[in-house]
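Record type: monomer structure entry
Structure origin: computed from sequence
Chain ID: A
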Amino acid sequence: MNTYSIAHLAAIAYLNSKGLKAEGACKYVCDEGTADVVVKDGEVTVLVIVTAKRQRGEVKKPEFSYKRLQHIAMCFLVEHPEVDALRFDVIEALIGTGATVSVNALEGAYCWER
């Protein structure tokens, strides 16, 4: 039996709505960190970090460490030399009142191309 976090389920639904087949997508783990979802967007490999937080006040763009994304991406590229273009997205599942969840996404937080 698989269990999923609400953040992961919200991210999968968001990615599917963007036309990316995220169901059954794999996860990437290295010494530098984790990409929770790995999918393809045409010829571009997309790594995604997924987080959850309570929605309080005005929605701001997701917070992330550019260097951390870059390090995870470089590890991925070393292990996957066939990849010619890579994008790193950050997705936040915002947990609101009344059991609501909305998605706050930053596409292209880090990009690399051969």
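Annotation 1: Helices lie at 6-17, 66-79.
Annotation 2: The longest helix spans residues 66-79.
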